[in-house]
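task queued by scheduler; priority normal; single chain, no ligands, no partner chains; default sampling; output format set to structure tokens
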Amino acid sequence: MSKLKESKSKGKMLFAEDDKFLAEMFRQKFKLEGYTPIIAHTAISAVLALRDEKPLAIILDIVLPDSECWMIMEYLLRKKDWMPVPIIILTNWDNEEYKKKAKELKADAFIVKAGTTPSKLVATMEDLVKKQKQKGVESYHPPTF
């Protein structure tokens, strides 16, 4: 039965969030929308998941127990074999310094948790994935925010 569900998945997405309640809420929404969510509660577990999985998008909380999401993004930028996918920063920290850092590290969106819903997050991710596929990997550049 799990193979049947897997074959109908729209794709995998990585969600790095240390708040287990929020992670579960968003996991359920992405699963309901047909995705296979991969949940990581630490930066290290997110990097390990990226090594083993091929997500079509990545959603990162800035502050994780063992590091900030910047470490994950810097890791991805250094990987020569990395196929760019949309990266969404989902955080409680609404400040210009973090927005600037996210942009420098090629995040595609910066979303404040208090200003979004699970449905809006899914819609944002789907829009970014669609734009990336339309433009192709080589010409894909993150939008401004």
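post-processing summary
- The chain is about 45% helix and 20% strand.
- Residues 19 and 41 are 7 Å apart (CA to CA).
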